[in-house]
Write a structure and sequence with these properties.
Number of helices: 19
Bound molecules: alpha-D-glucopyranose, calcium ion
Helix content: 25-40%
Distance between the termini: 15 Å
Largest sheet: 8 strands, parallel, barrel
Shape: globular
Strand content: 15-25%
Radius of gyration: 24 Å
């Protein structure tokens, strides 16, 4: 039995991540914008979305696509104006939807006024907003390697000092030990919350605690450097900073916050997502981290179904003891879930619906990434020049240095690149997928004539209309309670191809069962069936009643007595006797 839950307004919500640059371009400059987002609020509402997370829209030089902020109080010109942002807030509110923004406060841009002032006066007040340290005999202060490659230390021109950056050199890390800096950040956070934001997705936040002695670590690569997460791993005390942040900002507004947290220390989950947790929730990245290559993208093994199933189940079982996590199959930093987690034979509309079902009905807050709801897939990449992403370029050179051929290095990037998720949203079969009337900033996936919103709108059996039914089911008065608070219990874990679990409370038992195999499979049911509430292979077009986005009616599923037969890539959601 789970411990009783202190109910929160966001527990039963469905979230959607927008990557503004690639969502919809309203003015033809090839870059998505706020006007584009506003014009699609009704679309998102029709999908059942409650919370919209906007990746950064602040003023930025875009070295790391807006995750390098040069003015926290301004909207990037590329995206529009503050008036348009206010309009977005108002239009969302009208539709009973909540907006959350990205909060990037581990670092800012090197073009931010604070950093510019620090450079001008490297011993002055603003230098202490960052980590300026003396080098060691003309070398950097320590041997840490940044997340995007190369040293974490960059020389401060005209001095014998270096500044610290865990991401690109254009993203200097902010000194959270400085109370003045902290209060500047809190003021900014509160300014946005006052405007009516519902909360934030909090970027790279585990990195804010540094070991101020900046020691060397055991080198772990041919460059003689050590990965900077080793420092994050070795240092305590991030919790104090996070509680300080929360106390001074989020908790005053009952905000919804979702942390991007990797490398949490063991046993700390309760501190992050428990009742007094640092955040409302954090992302569950266990499936994404499962296949991290030791040396880089080039040595990542293909996803193993059994390992993936076990990873998801273990995470759910652990998380539900403490609170809620946010469940994803993809985001702007990951390849597309369909291309990653499904074997080739399953990268079809049926397989896509199956993956969506097992993900969305997990315990936690579903976060759908733009395009996931139509089954967008990784693009075909023909040359390294087609990529924009800074991380991809680094991984490409790591692969070449490791001795891979150009072709093999490109293949590794094609499979893992963050740009797979950043290609423009596929709205229609019009040129550039209807994303822009101009030249898109990143190439459009060539499969857009087959996979796009407008085609799927008119097809009752499309992935899009299936997602609508799936979300409607999750939020329906009848099943909302069990899908929100019901316990997660994995089942049939010893089969070769079935991913299945129950969501169960005192009065209802739901079975979600999916066959990821290439052949049909049978399971023996443990409880009598009341009815099938959703299936991805219904032949009955009314079963796909998209117009009313209804899940009603008995879906077809193949029963005989107590066995359930599932075709390859079939999923069924079944209400069982309790
Ligand atoms: C987070 C973001 C990623 C960004 C990094 C640095 O991981 O999701 O896109 O590059 O932080 O801000
Ligand atoms: Ca535009």
């Amino acid at each position: 039995m789970l411990k009783p839950v202190n109910r929160k307004w966001w527990h039963d919500k469905i979230a959607y991540q927008i990557y503004p640059k690639s969502f919809l371009d309203a003015n033809g400059d090839g870059i998505g914008d706020l006007e584009g987002i506003i014009s699609k609020l009704d679309y998102l509402k029709s999908l059942g979305i409650d919370i919209i997370w906007l990746s950064p829209i602040y003023k930025s030089p875009f070295v790391d696509q807006g995750y390098d902020i040069s003015d926290y109080y301004a909207i990037a010109e590329e995206f529009g104006t503050m008036e348009e942002f206010d309009l977005l807030l108002a239009e969302a509110e009208k539709r009973d939807m909540h907006i959350i923004m990205d909060l990037v406060i581990n670092h800012c841009s090197d073009k931010h006024e604070w950093f510019q002032k620090a450079l001008m006066d490297p011993y002055g007040e603003y230098a202490d907003y960052f980590y300026f340290r003396k080098g060691r005999d003309g070398n950097p202060p320590s041997n840490l390697r940044s997340y995007f490659g190369g040293s974490c230390w960059e020389p401060v021109p005209g001095t014998d000092m270096y500044y610290f950056h865990m991401f690109a050199k254009e993203q200097p890390d902010l000194n959270w030990e400085n109370p003045k800096l902290r209060s500047e950040l809190y003021k900014m956070v509160n300014w946005w919350l006052e405007k009516g934001l519902a909360g934030f997705r909090v970027d790279a936040i585990i990195n804010i605690k540094k070991d101020l002695s900046f020691p060397d670590f055991e080198p772990d690569g041919p460059d003689g450097l050590a990965h900077c997460w080793k420092m994050v791993d070795s240092v305590d005390g991030v919790g104090d900073l996070l509680q300080d942040l929360k106390r001074n900002t989020f908790s005053k507004y009952d905000s919804f916050t979702v942390g991007e947290v990797f490398n949490m220390h063991e046993g700390e989950l309760e501190n992050f997502i428990g009742d007094e947790g640092h955040f409302s929730t954090i992302f569950d990245f266990s499936a994404q981290c499962m296949d991290e290559g030791i040396n880089g993208w080039y040595d990542i093994p293909p996803v193993d179904f059994r390992l993936w199933r076990q990873t998801v189940a273990n995470s759910q079982l652990e998380v539900q003891k403490h609170g809620f996590e946010a469940n994803i199959i993809e985001n702007h930093d990951e390849p597309r879930g369909v291309s990653r987690f499904l074997p080739e034979y399953a990268r079809t509309p049926d397989g896509t619906k199956m993956l969506g079902t097992v993900s969305v009905l997990l315990r936690g807050i579903p976060f759908i990434y733009q395009g996931q709801e139509i089954g967008m897939q990784n693009a075909v990449w023909n040359s390294i020049d087609e990529f924009d992403d800074i991380n991809t370029k680094d991984q490409y050179s790591i692969a070449l240095q490791a001795g891979l051929s150009d072709e093999a290095a490109l293949a590794a990037c094609a499979a893992m690149s963050r740009d797979n998720a950043r290609t423009p949203m596929q709205w229609s079969s019009d040129p550039n997928a209807g994303f822009t009337s101009g030249t898109p900033w990143l190439k459009v996936n060539s499969n857009y004539p087959a996979i796009n919103v407008s085609l799927q709108e008119t097809d009752p059996s499309s992935v899009l209309n299936y997602y609508r039914r799936l979300i409607t089911l999750r939020k329906s008065p009848e099943f909302r309670e069990v899908f929100t608070y019901g316990e997660f219990a994995p089942v049939y874990m010893d089969t070769d191809s079935i991913m299945a679990y129950y969501r169960v409370n005192d009065s209802q038992r739901m079975l979600i069962a999916a066959n990821f195999g290439s052949e049909a499979a049978e399971i023996k049911l443990e409880y009598p069936v009341k009815r099938v509430v959703l299936g991805n292979m219904s032949n009955d077009p009314a079963g796909g009643a998209c117009a009313e986005a209804s899940y009603a009616g008995t879906e077809s599923a193949d029963f005989s007595g107590e066995t359930l037969k599932l075709s390859s890539c079939e999923v069924a959601v079944i209400e069982c006797e309790i």
